[in-house]
Design a protein that fits this description.
1 helix, rod-shaped, about 60% helix, about 60 residues, mainly alpha
Length: about 60
Amino acid sequence: MVRLSRTPHRQPRTYYFPSNMSFSLLTSLYRHQFELILSSLLLEYSFHSQLATTNGPRIL
């Protein structure tokens, strides 16, 4: 009967960038995500400020 070892010989996963291309792709992806979040926040802020100006000054 073969005993299975409870500790597998597997190192923690490390990610290597094979070239500068994938790194630039990743940074552009993160930048796009950041722009999306920033634009949505800006849109929400402008919407709230518009609400505040139309319905009188109030804290939202």
